[in-house]
Amino acid sequence: MKRFALLFLILAVFAGCGGKSASNAESDNLYKETQELMGTFATITAVADKAELPAAQAAVNKAFARLRQIEDLMSFHREDTEVALVNREAFDHPVAVSAETFEVIKAAVQFARDTDGAFDITVGPLVRLWAEAGEAGKLPSQEQIADALTKVGAATKIKLDEEKKTVRFTVKGMSIDLGGIAKGYAVDKAIEVLRAEGVNNAIVEAGGNMTVIGKNAEGKKWIIGVKNFFRKSGHVEQIEVENMAVSTSGDYERFVVIDGHRYSHIIDPRTGMPVEGAASVTVIARDGMTADAWSTAASVLGSTRALEMLRKDPKYGDCQMLFAACTQGFRDYLAPGEEDK
Ligand code: AMP
Ligand code: MG
Predict the structure, then answer these.
(1) Cβ(154) to ligand 1 under 6 A?
(2) Residue 164 per-residue DSSP state
(3) Rounded average pLDDT over 113-141
(4) Can you give the pTM of this predicted structure?
(5) Does residue 251 line the site of ligand 1, with CB under 6 A?
């Protein structure tokens, strides 16, 4: 695979493992199950021969429980999570959180720095504003956007205490939304559970975030199907992955429509406006959080800038990016010569 230079539209990322989409599927040497959680669907596929199937099923159940545990800590949309507590109280006083929530927030603050603020979990007020705008069918005013922007800035406006595991906000009305990173974290944690249970060949996927370990049921590398809209034939490209996290972001399925215009669920934290035109961006990395955060960031930054930034930072030396574009405007972001014929 040509590093950093593939321009694909990811229509769907799927594992080449029999193509079953039913919620409970057992096929030769595979156990596969789908459940609804984290506001999306999660699918776990484990390689196991017939004799190992009951053990694999038990391991998969434990991995799903782990995903739910993380959802219970980090959901932005529920009142009873640690993230909700932080959002209610962290301006008034430092809020103590679990080691896990702290780890994700801390990593997110670092991603805000590494992406020049393109990935920013303090987009909460903007996410709310645009969700309300979508419901009302009316654009937010410039004043509302400007006001929300005063509450954005993870790199400077969140104060973390490593010892006490507390989070504090420095501006009233701030709120964090881990929707762009928590699923990547969660799929890695589910994989850890599977490994601990003796399952070493598996895929965990949740809402466009996938972590792959080991080999498929045929003992070969897992294959991920990628639809390439840049090619006129629109055919499916296949890429092989092994022990990797793959994350796809874009507005291809989550957006609001106001006055006939489509607004992405990904917000540019620098302008307060939803990202225009990034139909789909896939990032492959060693861990789920990196893939998840950078695929969201790349939707904001555009391919040329995102690639430049990834390349200049040695800690992202392993990352690869597959790009996609089809909605208007996105082509402006592409470097000359990058487009496929
Ligand atoms: P993803 O699907 O991983 O790209 O994450 C998108 C979700 O992350 C959105 O639904 C919001 O909850 C949140 N979000 C939106 N814009 C940003 C941003 N610029 N940085 C971080 N999180 C964001
Ligand atoms: Mg993301």
Answers:
(1) no
(2) T
(3) 96
(4) 0.88
(5) no
Angle at 197 between CA 191 and CA 199, to 5 degrees: 60
CA 122/CA 118 separation, integer angstroms: 11
Secondary structure percentages of the chain, helix, strand, coil, to 5: 35, 25, 40
Gyration radius (Cα) of the chain, Å: 20
- CATH no. for 9-50+200-333: 3.10.520.10
Query: In the structure, what pLDDT confidence band is assigned to residue 127 with cuts at 50, 70 and 90?
Result: very high
Q: Where are the domains of the chain?
A: 9-50+200-333
In short, whether 274's Cβ falls inside 6 Å of ligand 1 is no
Whether the CB-CB separation of 266 and 299 falls below 8 Å is answered with: yes
Determine which residue's CA is closest to atom 5 belonging to ligand 1: 180
State whether the beta carbon of 300 lies less than 6 angstroms from ligand 1.
yes
Residue 225 dihedral angles phi and psi, to the nearest 5°:
-90, 135
Atom 22 of ligand 1: nearest residue by CA position: 180
Measured from the CB, is residue 288 less than 6 Å from ligand 1? no
- Res 327 pLDDT > 50: no
Cα dihedral sign for 312, 209, 278, 118? negative
> Which ligand has the minimum distance to the alpha carbon of residue 175?
1
Pairing status of strand 209-213 against strand 222-227? unpaired
| C-alpha 210 – ligand 2 centre gap (Å) | 11
**Identity of the amino acid at 51:** A
